[in-house]
Amino acid sequence: MHELSIALSIVDLATEAADKNGGGKVEALYLKLGKLSGVMKDSLLFSWDLACAGTRIEGARLVVEELPVTVHCGSCETERMLDSINSFACPICGDPSTKVLGGRELQLSAMEIV
């Protein structure tokens, strides 16, 4: 389960950021997680409390925003959101879409520090 190592890395990033911003208490962390990131949201959330235990981040909430896969459809000449990661075809015209625009994200986007 590599989600635990990812959670530990997020704790390290949050600790560093809190130190740079006066060392306050971290209340919440906001993470953007793409469907193609290879990270399972439920496993990450399950690992969160364990990763935070005994650190300055202990007790902080991890808020995960799941991002869909978006592709560029060459036939429609527009960005489309895929219904499923099992089919990389435009949901409107059905043509294959190989240019992935979004969905790979794993980004700590914000923190609440008090």
Outline the structure in words.
By secondary structure, the chain is α+β, with helices and mostly antiparallel strands. It has a domain at 3-68 and 102-113: 2-Layer Sandwich (hypothetical protein PF0899 fold), CATH 3.30.2320. 26% of the residues lie in helices and 32% in strands. It is built from 2 helices and 6 strands, in the order αβαβββββ. The strands form 2 sheets. It has a 3-stranded mixed sheet. A 3-stranded antiparallel sheet has the order 4-3-5, with no helix packed on it. β1, α2 (41-52) and β2 (61-67) form a beta-alpha-beta unit. α1 crosses α2. It is elongated and about 50 Å long. The two termini are 32 Å apart. The model has no long low-confidence stretch (mean pLDDT 94).
